[in-house]
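Student: I would love a firmer grasp of how sequence relates to backbone shape in proteins. I am handing you a single protein, as its sequence and its fold in token form. I am told such tokens are a discrete way to write the fold. I hope you can help me see how the letters and the tokens relate. Take your time, and here it is.
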Amino acid sequence: MVGGFVVGIVGGAFRWCLQAADAIRTDLIAWAHQLSGPGWLVPVAVVAACATVAGLIVRSEPMAARSGIPRLEAAFLGESPPPRLRVVPARFGGGLLSIGSGLVLGREGPTVHMGATIGAETARRIRLRAGEATNMQVALGGAGLAVAFNAPVAGVLFTLEEVTKSWRAQTVLASAFAVAAAIGGSRLVLGDESDLHVDDTAVVGLSWLPLFVVFGACTGLLGAAYNRVVLLAVDHLAAGRRVPTPAAAGLIGAAVGLLLVVAPLTVGDGSALTQMLLDGHSPVLLAAAGLLVARFVTGPVCYSAAVPGGLFSPLLAVGALWATLFLGCFQAVWPDDEKQLAIPLLLAGMAAFFGATVRAPLTGLVIVMEMTATTSAAIPMLITTAAAVVAAKAVGSRPIYDELRERLPANPAREASGDV
């Protein structure tokens, strides 16, 4: 609980800094549009510089690279040593620069790994035995995820369903105590507000449930395709390059900076886009398709930069966009006005896409429910997520974090230098 409270304070401070960075980035873009001449070069230069510095941080602390979730799973399986305390400032500063500057990365990757690092350090200081130290590490990693989304139950489920893949009483209780303390600490910093706001949602009639089965199956295939794109980016854009991480991160950051000027919804962690869709401000069908394709590419490309950042938040935005596109296509062939399907489809798309890619369906369901403080669409979400997981498994797609864990270098310093 002491470790969990520390995770809550650190994770809450990290989220507060990211919110401040979002506001600064928005003001910077507005100011650049008012400049005469090539004012668009200002955001390009700023984002490139932030990404480059984040790459330099990773070069000095290789365990801060990318998402911390594969690292946590590797440590649990004994494939990686416990992280040292210096990972926390590296994750905090590098994540603030990469995510805050607008790269398509999620805040949960750094927060989970910071939590796991605090857990490992706590275990060292009180001299826990190896098995108990691992339990401490994964419990506080789950506390980090809970803080990232203000989703306490999802934090516990993440530890059990994704990391340990077991339901031992000791792990359940340790995770529950750690998460409760972490959420208490984070709310001292951030307050108690759900991440996404949803108006009252009508209950979906039973006659519409077959539509959610079809939607779920299609979402599973889309999730399998997204996993493939992420792995292609990691295997070819990252492993095949001959430039060090800071230079590659700077180039990707420059491209993101340009997109921030011309098409801002295609980059960033996606939370603003998701909220816009939940508020009913849906783009036209062609624009939704374009945004979906763009985020299908920008997310994996930014992840290949090897700077601190995760996959969760961008996944939720892709799921919401896909639901918007699916509903638009359905309404084109079924002209009846069925507005009550919009919000349930969006929520189901977010949970199902997460379930198809990460293969942790209960965690995905609860994350979306807690982030939106909405349970009225629980049945469609359950059906859609189950169909998505079945479809993803049917085409042979493996959980994305299992694939990424197996690609972790035996010597992280080689990955950070670009010599892979």
In short: Confidence is low (pLDDT under 50) at residues 413-420. The first helix runs from residue 2 to 34.
